[in-house]
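User: For my dataset I need records formatted as: sequence, then structure tokens, nothing else. Please produce one.
Assistant:
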Amino acid sequence: MYVEDKVQDPSDSNASPLKHFGHEVRLERGRLGMKREELGSEANCGYSLVAKIEAGERVPALEFAQACDRVFPYANGRFERLWPLALRYAFPPWFRPYAELEWTATAVRMFHPQLVPGLVQTPEYARTVLQCGRPTNLEDLVTARMARQRILTREIPTRLWLVLNEAVLRNTVGCAAVMRDQLAHLRRIAETPTHRVQVIRDVGKHHGWASPFGLLSFSEGADVVHIDGFPRGYLLAERDDVMTTQDAYDLLKAMACPPDESAELIDSISKDCYT
């Protein structure tokens, strides 16, 4: 059992960073005599979501934390500083070390044979994938997954290199509208100068790699490998494992269409399959 999984007193505001965040919101709102509806209006959300965040039952979006800092006097950025701790609570314990490494990475290289990776999923695609596992905290998981994507658009973005099987583009997740939006999002990423998207055409021969995996690079220190497995993923840092993974990724890039051709293929499949 992980420490985070142990039963906690639900009334204890220090039971988790999520509980603490909600407690602080409730205190500041009470000091102002502000109603939940008013705070919700400032944060572009409803009464129910404010109540759940205050109770420590929902993970807040960054925009909610920023709204609290804007509305509450003397907050001085406190809620945005607390937000990463609250967000961490949305990830399964085994995933948290990876999420922290991903946030500090200067480059991420990913391969996925069947699905669009979480780092580039749209909210509806992510919701459709995640709800298959029937989690009790679906919206928290979606919020956390969308928050991870900030590394791609921050002031100094993490560079992304993504290799996908063509089957990923043809594997319908949800409905046609969900897939159209997802492929359009992939196309935008492919057009971003700091990122690369390549697609391996389905030509009747399998390349042999069935498991999703990724490589994280940093400004200091060696690369780290992440294997996305079931029921949980795991990290590898041994030099031989990293070198083997780097070689595998280089081969996958060599097998894939060049970035420009891959972008055209994304457009073609979106038009043929999802219009």
